[in-house]
Write a structure and sequence with these properties.
- There is one protein chain.
- With 378 residues, this protein is an alpha/beta fold.
- Helix 4 runs parallel beside helix 5 and helix 6 runs parallel beside helix 7.
- The chain is elongated, with a radius of gyration of 21 Å.
- It has a six-stranded parallel sheet, sandwiched between helices.
- Helix content is 44%, strand content 15%.
Length: 378
């Protein structure tokens, strides 16, 4: 009951803190008629579709469940709106992604939707997109140091980390003025080449740093700075190997590890694998993000405490709306024009609201909504 109440409170607090969810918009960029009217947006999509417009969608890899789902959702919704779709996965190889995007440009794509492997490695091909007057929507990962980026569609990435940090505080009942009980924590962050990884980390640390400074939370490994806790490519095996070393060096004497702050589910899975193989103390709090199938199973089994759910169906819907608005010279829905500077200036952004998931509410969020079936989580 306590965890269920916590879940509801966090979800409500998050919703209140956001400008708007994925269904509506409060601000728009400069342009023609407003894209906020649903009927107008539908007509716009139909009009664009009737002209045979083509959309290029570049996803990083098929190795992570979430990108498979993102690509499939995007293709389904764009094709349902009548667009021709060129969808490519780049196997986490930057050169491959550059070549695929160049092919999309040569194939006459009218809009590009790109989830970059590395945020700063697409400069040359972005220049080519700009030369060909092709608008670019950065999808979930902001493309850095390029003025070819027209818009950014993502979730509130800082808030993701805030929710993870607040979950830890609330679950343990931490009070920054009460140092009578202390806890141990280890941090596993994301890919340093992914601009979002820093937002996740900073969001969590905005909640937890005060408790570290007060000595209530101790990171026994001493690895706290982002560059020390980052995980290249968000790789499960790299997170597992690093946690193997931490457990061997700092917790083999029977010291309990109380908290594992993990930025996403692929890194959390590596930590959980390491815990299963190397740790015999009381099981720690483990955070995550994305509600991947294997992690959701672990959450149900008590091996992962929570995951931040980002419903990529909603993000895909928003991107389809933005594509239609771009192609019809309408105002494009955004709700943040302050946060995301890619090195060339602020990129107008649409931030969808992430949701809190745990063993108490996963059925409502994931099964009742049709995101997963019961069988997938068996």
């Amino acid at each position: 009951m306590k965890k269920k109440l916590l879940s509801l409170l966090l979800t409500g607090a998050m919703a209140a803190s956001m400008f708007v969810g994925c269904g509506t918009s409060t601000e728009t960029t400069d342009g023609g008629a407003s894209g906020g009217d649903a009927a107008q947006t539908t007509e716009s999509s139909d009009a664009a579709a009737s002209t045979g417009k083509k959309v290029g969608v570049s996803m990083p890899t098929k190795d992570l469940q979430r990108w498979n789902q993102d690509g499939a959702n995007m293709q389904e919704k764009l094709e349902a709106a009548g667009y021709e779709v060129e969808l490519q996965y780049a196997s986490n190889q930057t050169d491959t992604q550059v070549n695929q995007i160049e092919t999309m440009i040569n194939d006459g794509c009218d809009v590009l939707v790109i989830a970059a492997i590395e945020s700063s490695s697409l400069g040359t091909v972005m220049d080519k997109a700009k030369e060909n007057n092709i608008p670019v929507i950065a999808y979930d990962r902001l493309i850095m140091n390029s003025d070819a980026v027209s818009y950014y569609a993502t979730f509130d990435n800082f808030q993701v980390g805030v929710v993870q940090g607040q979950y830890i505080v609330d679950t343990l009942g931490l009070d920054v003025n009460d140092t009578s009980k202390t806890y141990t924590m280890e941090i596993t962050a994301g890919d340093p080449g992914d601009n979002n990884a820093g937002f996740f980390y900073n969001g969590a640390m905005s909640i937890l740093q005060d408790y570290i400074d007060a000595g209530i939370i101790e990171v026994k490994s001493g690895q706290v700075d982002f560059e020390d806790v980052a995980t290249a490519s968000w790789a499960t095996e790299k997170a597992q190997s690093r946690m193997d070393s931490i457990l061997s060096n700092y917790y083999s004497d029977g010291t309990n590890l109380d908290i594992c702050l993990c930025s996403n589910d692929s890194t959390a899975l590596g930590v959980e694998n390491s815990l299963a193989a190397n740790y015999t103390g009381d099981y720690p709090i483990v955070t995550g993000q994305d509600c991947d199938i294997e992690n959701t199973k672990n959450m149900i089994a008590g091996k992962q405490s929570m995951s931040v759910f980002k419903d990529t169906r909603k993000l895909a819907e928003q991107v389809v709306t933005m594509v239609g608005q771009i192609l019809n010279n309408e105002k494009v829905d955004v709700n943040d024009e302050e946060t995301y500077d890619n090195g060339t200036g602020i990129i107008p952004s649409y931030l969808c609201t992430p949701e809190f998931a745990d063993a108490n509410n996963y059925k409502e969020l994931l099964i009742d909504s049709g995101y997963y079936t019961e069988d997938q989580l068996q």
